[in-house]
Amino acid sequence: MLYLLSFLVLVMLCVGIAIIFVKDILSAVILSTVVSLVVSIIFLFIAAPDVAITEAAIGAALTAVVFVIAIKRTEMKETADKE
């Protein structure tokens, strides 16, 4: 189990570093969702299922949806301003 937790932490760190170098904002949001899902899996392994469910629901799902909606609305406003 220690190897699996170490692997998950390594994946989380690699994805976190990848977020820094990604040029597209939508890709960065998707990668941050991956980090949040990995964190929720880690919470499951350390016997905190309530925190894991909260992290998966709010940290991954709700935050990603809010960010994607904000990105889409910002892009629509930019194209309307250019015309």
Give me a quick take on this structure.
The protein has 3 helices and no strands.
Structure description:
The protein has one domain (about 1-80). The chain has about 80 residues and is mainly α. The protein is elongated and about 55 Å long. Helices cover about 90% and strands about 0% of the residues. It has helices at about 1-20, 25-45, 50-80. The longest helix has about 35 residues, at about 50-80. The mean pLDDT is about 90.
Structure keywords:
90% helix, 3 helices, 83 residues, elongated, mainly alpha
Secondary structure: elements and pairs:
Layout: H1 2-21, H2 25-45, H3 49-82
Helix pairs in contact: 1-2, 2-3
| Radius of gyration of CA atoms, rounded to a whole number | 16 Å
Please estimate the helix content: over 70%
* Biggest beta-sheet profile: none
Shape: elongated
Distance between the termini: 57 Å
Low-confidence stretches: none
Average pLDDT value? 90
Based on secondary structure, the structural category is: mainly alpha
Count of distinct structural domains: 1
